[in-house]
Every structure is written in C-alpha cells, then in structure tokens.
Automatic annotation (TrEMBL):
Transmembrane segments: none
Signal sequence, renumbered to the chain: 1-19
Name of this protein: ABC transporter substrate-binding protein
Source organism per UniProt: Massilia suwonensis
InterPro entries listed in its UniProt record: ABC_transpt-TYRBP-like
Signal recorded as keyword: yes
Recorded coiled-coil stretches: none
Keywords: Signal
C-alpha cells in the first residue's frame, strides 16, 4: 500500500512538472512571406540574412522553450500571423498604416500590445519637410482624411490642415476646400486615393497650381510633384533593428514610419509649378547605417 501511494505521489508530482511550462529562455523567428512572387522572395531572403545575427546566439535544444518572433511581409501575412495562437510577437512590414489599424485595432488590447510594424508609406513629417525644401520656405499644406485614416489627425496637428471626407462626401467638393493651400499631402487611404479617382485629384490640383506630395514613387511618375520613398533594404534594416531591440530589452517598439529614405521628384511637374528644385531638396534622404 505504501509503495502504491509513493508511486501515485510521484506520478502526480511529474504531472505537475509537465503541466507548468518552462519559462522562455530565448527567441526564434519565422518569416511569413504572404506569397511567392519574385519580389516577396527577394524581401524574405534579404530579411533572413539581417535577422540571423540577432537570433543565432540562442541555444537550439528541442527541449528549450523559446519565444517566437513572427515577421509578416504584407497584409495577407499580417492577417495570417494575427490568427496564430502562440506566445509570440509580430513585426509587420510592407503594410500601410491604414491596413495595420484595420487589423490590429480589432484585437484585444493584450494581443495588440504584442504587435508592431514598420509602415509601408513615408512619414508625414518627412513629406512635409520635403515640401518646405522644394518651396524653400514653410508651406501651407492640407491632408484629406477619411473615416479609416482619422487616426493620423494627431500626427498632423500643427503641421498640416486636415480636411475630413465622409464616406458619402463628394470628393470634388472636398478638393474645392483646398483653394487656400499650396500643397496637398497625399496619404494612403483607399477610400480617397484609388485607381478611379487619383487621376482626377492630380488634374484638379494641377489646374490650381497646387503641388501634390505623393506617398509612393509610382504616384510621382503619374503626376505628383515629389515624395520620399524607401527601398526594400531600407525597410528590412529597420525591421531587423526593431527585432534586435525587442530581443535585447523585452520591450516591443511602437509602430513606426520608415526611418531610411531617399527622394524622387517629377521635374516636369516642378517646372509647371514654377518651382526651381534646390540641391537640398534633391539630396533629401536618410541613409541606413
């Protein structure tokens, strides 16, 4: 009887040990590519090389419990990573701030705190600095925000006037309210800037001799005056820095706009707007280390 009780006690003790998970003693990472296009493969390969040095120092025994860091490339990968139930953090990249908020703002606060991002679009502050360099003085700028991008309003306070566009508002009427502004700061809002109306926006502002600071190099090619933009390697370098900061401190950095960038200018549009582009505007950039 005493032996049976002893055996039962050992089994209960073993069960208690197995039931309590071992504390995390390191980190590992996984890249969610969100597709298999050649561009995505290029992003993932470059990102992998940048992340390996941060994680290589942790032991890899199978019994060791390590915390997972997911790197999500693009919106689909972000949604896939969010769906995972795990002791993990998520760093998203190549996803606009609008999509990021649409996904993350619906999560429970505790889960949302374990997610961060390097947004796909340029920082509004950098864009407005570029506008001032192009005009060689402070400019009166405006930005149009829809219901899904209203979160940007505090960021623009004191830097640009905000025009609200409701879902049922006529965009032409909103654009007429820009008459006192020299620059329209375009921000990626799919309800405002989409293939159906972006040409009309560019034509409307162009006729009024107003500059559009775009949110991508492609937008500059079709008629915006200028933009800052980041290469794949610029975004990946920032993601790797964010992951290294988390591994070193245990604190996940807040979502960020791209830190490293360069500038592209539509020279034809500049001439039409009587803007003489300065060397300082052409060289406006922040190079990665």
């Amino acid at each position: 009887m005493r032996l049976r009780l002893l055996a039962a006690g050992l089994m209960l003790a073993a069960g208690a040990v197995l039931a309590a998970p071992a504390p995390a003693s390191g980190y590992r990472f996984q890249i969610f590519p969100g597709g298999d296009s050649s561009l995505t493969v290029r992003i993932a390969e470059d990102l992998y090389k940048r992340l390996v040095p941060t994680f290589a120092g942790f032991r890899t025994e199978l019994a060791q419990r390590r915390r997972m860091v997911y790197i999500a490339i693009g919106p689909d990968a972000l949604r896939e990573a969010v769906a995972r139930r795990c002791d993990c953090v998520v760093i998203a990249a190549f996803t606009s701030s609008q999509v990021w908020h649409a996904v993350v703002d619906r999560l429970p606060p505790a889960r949302a705190r374990m997610m961060t991002a390097v947004y796909a679009e340029p920082a509004p502050g950098d864009q407005l600095r570029l506008a001032a360099l192009l005009y060689r003085r402070p400019v009166r700028a405006a930005a149009i925000l829809g219901p899904d991008t209203d979160y940007l309003q505090p960021l623009l306070a004191g830097q640009a006037d905000v025009l609200q566009a409701g879902r049922d508002d006529n965009l032409g009427d909103v654009l007429t309210r820009l008459q006192r502004h020299e620059v329209l700061l375009a921000l990626p809002d799919s309800a405002i800037y989409n293939p159906e109306n972006i040409r009309n926006i560019l034509l409307s502002t162009y006729r009024r001799k107003q500059a559009v600071i775009g949110f991508s190099a492609d937008m500059v090619k079709v008629g915006a005056l200028a933009t800052t933009y980041s290469e794949i390697e610029d975004i990946n370098a920032q993601v790797a820095e964010m992951a290294a900061s988390f591994v070193a401190s245990g604190e996940l950095p807040a979502p960020q706009f791209p830190r490293y960038f360069r500038t592209t200018i539509n020279e034809g549009v500049a001439r039409s707007l009587d803007i003489v582009v300065s060397p300082e505007a052409r060289r406006f950039a922040r190079a990665r280390p």
